[in-house]
């Protein structure tokens, strides 16, 4: 039996999410280099994961756990963004693609042109939080229509008073993910009605930590970011509740997971429309490799637990079972 892992990723001064983002930022090389012990299962090989920065912490943690149990397997986890990651995945340069949105038509065409067959797996739930400075005491709730007015291209909302006469006449600073991000695509589609429909003067960043810093430093700022980043910084930030059609809701494990539940099974109102699944895309021909197919199986076995460890939310048991069945069907085609 191997000894206990040599990296302590338990909650503490540095969160699991931050540790995993740091080690994965250079292709997970730092962490992989540390995993020199653990168990030799007989599996060996290399696996390349790229794509969404948002899903990266979950995939990095799953990879760490798998490498500990299979110490002759090396897994590289990078975060070039959903859009850039799909370009590599569809050229056959990555085995797995983390994605914070579904594959687009142009990416489907690119995969088809390069003979890359793929399998889509829904692996975690996430929410997009609307974040503000704690000293912003006026804007606690917004409707989707109000958010759209603020964020759409050509918006005439420049100050808080443009939304409500009782609010300050101070200019709003806008922060969010940049155009290479699936989070950007999902937010604009849900809030402004079309992917890429967003005001030209917002500060877009590939790094959510820059969004957090921007909002944290300006009481008149607003931003959108993955809900896990808010939870990690809730001493310095607050969230704006969003009207979901029935009532106002904020992102939480209960409200986000409720968005995947049948209405009769819900105990709380879902956080909609800003709850979303995150996806793992599997390059099907890689399933011929034993280490690869065992890793994908392991991912589905562990993701409900790892998701909560790194600030995401679990997909329902029924969804996991559906993904397992689809994975096994794909494996049968290659083994």
Q: Biggest β-sheet: count, sense, barrel?
A: 9 strands, mixed
Summarize model confidence as the mean pLDDT: 89
Per DSSP, the total helix count is 12
- Tell me the number of strands: 12
Keywords: Signal
Pfam families: PBP_like_2
Domain PBP: 45-300
Protein name: ABC-type phosphate transport system, periplasmic component
3D architecture notes:
- With 335 residues, the protein is of the alpha/beta class.
- The protein has 2 domains: 16-125 and 277-334, Periplasmic binding protein-like II (D-Maltodextrin-Binding Protein, domain 2, 3-Layer(aba) Sandwich); 127-265, D-Maltodextrin-Binding Protein, domain 2.
- Helices cover 37% and strands 19% of the residues.
- It has 12 helices and 12 strands.
- Strands 1, 2, 3, 4, 6, 7, 8, 9 and 12 form a 9-stranded mixed β-sheet that branches. Strands 5-10-11 form a 3-stranded mixed β-sheet.
- Strand 6, helix 7 (182-191) and strand 7 form a beta-alpha-beta unit.
- Helix 1 packs across helix 3 (56-69) and helix 3 crosses helix 11.
- The longest helix is centred in the C-terminal third of the chain and has 20 residues, at 290-309.
- The model is unreliable at 1-14 and 25-35 (pLDDT under 50).
């Amino acid at each position: 039996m191997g000894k206990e892992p040599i990296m302590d990723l338990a909650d503490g001064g540095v969160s699991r999410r931050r540790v995993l983002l740091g080690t994965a930022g250079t292709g997970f090389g730092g962490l992989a280099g540390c995993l020199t012990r653990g168990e030799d299962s007989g599996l060996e090989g290399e696996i390349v994961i790229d794509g969404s920065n948002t899903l990266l912490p979950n995939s990095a943690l799953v990879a760490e756990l798998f490498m500990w149990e299979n110490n002759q397997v090396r897994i590289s986890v990078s975060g070039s963004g959903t859009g850039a990651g799909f370009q590599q995945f569809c050229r056959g340069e990555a085995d797995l693609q983390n994605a914070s949105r579904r594959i687009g038509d142009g990416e489907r065409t690119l995969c088809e042109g390069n003979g890359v067959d793929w399998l889509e797996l829904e692996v975690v739930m996430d929410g997009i939080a609307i974040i503000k400075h704690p000293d912003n005491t006026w804007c606690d709730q917004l409707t989707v229509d109000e958010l759209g007015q603020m964020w759409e291209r050509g918006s005439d909302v420049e100050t808080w008073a443009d939304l409500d006469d009782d609010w300050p006449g101070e200019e709003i600073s806008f922060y969010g993910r940049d155009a290479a991000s699936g989070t950007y695509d999902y937010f604009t589609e849900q809030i402004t009605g079309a992917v890429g429909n967003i005001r030209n003067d917002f500060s877009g960043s590939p790094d959510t930590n820059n969004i957090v810093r921007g909002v944290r430093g300006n009481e008149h700022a607003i931003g959108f970011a993955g809900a896990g980043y808010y939870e990690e910084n809730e001493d310095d930030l607050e969230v704006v509740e969003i009207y979901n059609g029935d009532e106002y809701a904020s992102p939480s494990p209960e409200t986000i997971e409720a968005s995947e539940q049948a209405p009769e099974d819900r105990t709380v109102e879902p956080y909609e429309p800003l709850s979303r699944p995150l996806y793992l895309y599997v390059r099907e021909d890689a399933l011929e490799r034993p280490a690869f197919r065992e890793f994908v199986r392991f991912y589905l076995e562990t993701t409900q637990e790892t998701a909560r460890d790194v600030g995401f939310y679990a997909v329902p048991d029924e969804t996991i079972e559906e993904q397992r069945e689809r994975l096994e069907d794909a494996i049968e085609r290659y083994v």
